[in-house]
Amino acid sequence: MTGAAAGGASTAPLADPDVADISGDTVQPPPEAASEHAAAIAAAADAAAAGHPPEVAAEKAAAAAARANPRKMIPSLRALADEDRATAKKARASWQMFTIMAEFIEATEYLSEIRPAVSIYGSARLREDSPYYQRTIEIARLFSDAGFAVISGGGPGIMEAANKGAHAGKSASVGLNIELPHEQQGNPYQDIAMRFRHFFTRKVTFVKNSDAFIVMPGGFGTLDELAEVLTLVQTGKSRSVPVIMFGSRFWKGLLDWFRFTLLPMGLIAEHDLDLMKIVDEPHEVLEAVYDYYEQRGGDKPIPPKEEMFYL
Question: Which domain holds residue 175?
Fold first, then answer.
């Protein structure tokens, strides 16, 4: 037994003195780092032996190190070998930001003076033979004749019914159309038709320009729009507006889930249930909106310091 072993010294290989943890004890570099290092040295040596200039040897060493650690082969804007490709990718990202800004600007220019306005949400799949389609026409006509512009998603189904009813009335019929992989054709009942590439700019436009929301039966898209409005009002990111859900038979299950599941678990507050109201007749929708504002003395102005945080 040697003196070193007798003294209890470790016989483990010495670690790289340049790699240390915060306690000062040396640690072994990760295996992939060692393999990268070895591959780079071997490639550089081979290149030098073949008589390649230093810059070529360096390139071959870098390529060998990357192959030794496949994670570094993932392309990124900072590490793309092809500068043209990187430039094109940056240009696409910049152009996308410009299209987003353009959609917000266009929506503001077209819709800022169209007030008061209500948005009507609902399924694109409910056709003319659906009672909800016919009720939507009645509701939209009532609001249009009462002086409200009516905003819909501009597509078929409930959206078409909303524009159809408003188009026959006294006020503007507005459609916020969305480009989809399976092309959504705009309905022919729009006085003002806008086209969006991005769902979120379209949704912001709905919220920013509406004084009430009427939610007809619908699927995932309608639930998404409903949840967003409720969340924005609940969190104070949007001014308080009436949310009227049409059809108690259709919405009862969702409201029961709110009341008997979310509320007992403390996931919503009791007063959150007051953010929405369910009605079953077209004339009740208009009355509910009037009642909402009458009870609050009209739409209270937003304090200047807070206005910048509101949609």
Answer: 115-298
